[in-house]
Amino acid sequence: MVRNFVTIVILLAVSTGLSNPPACVTRNSAFSPGEEISYTLYFNWGFIWVNAGEGVFNVKETTFKDTPVYHLNFLGTSHRWYDAIFRVRDRFQSYVEKETFSPLWHEMDTYEGGHEAWDIYYFDHEKNRIIAITEDSKRPRSTDTIEIDRCSYDIVTAAYAARNLDFSSYQVNDTIPFKIMIRDELHEIKPVFRGRDTVKARRGGTFECLKFSIELVDGFIFKGGDDLFIWVTDDDNRIPVMIEAEIRVGSIKAVLNSWNGLRHPLSARID
Q: To which H or E segment does residue 161 belong?
């Protein structure tokens, strides 16, 4: 379940055609090392919303093969009392070159309801390719080489890249295409800008937001063709405030809980 919240935040969707060129971020102005954002994850079964877990994003800085990088992390866990229903222990991490915002390395390590998966991607931008090593509970480890272009991302890097887009030129119903590696395939995705909205995040307060919808990929939890909705702060931070989606046995929601180390004042908060 939590793994799919990650794909929500990073705008995971199947594309049926690109109305604009794919987004390509070459610098970061939205976040800084030391930022940490947490979310409460809810599951709805019938008419009851259940607090099922927590998701935490954080940013550090380090070096990777002598290159200064952002170390982007996500950790998702179900609450211990919820483990008996659906146990989740997920970690995603990426190294992204600070100067060009190019992803260099990505790892996914997930356990969700008995299903385990592990991926590592090595980005080779000189040869426009990814070396992808993948395995999960249903298939043995395999190594593949996938051709990419300059503006291809892993799902964690895509989440942070999306926060750096300039939305001032977009109109309602415009699409914002991305190219993202998911397992061992490169997908074209197209979030749709739905305009501005006001969202209450319970503990976090009320925020002025930009709203997007995304057509979901059919998978372990989601039903393909359904829309996911995401609201991000209408300020220079562009942090997700709330995410909602239908799943096969109900619906799920991620709600902003806390934040620290933001690069800019959280001016979208109105109470």
A: helix 155-162
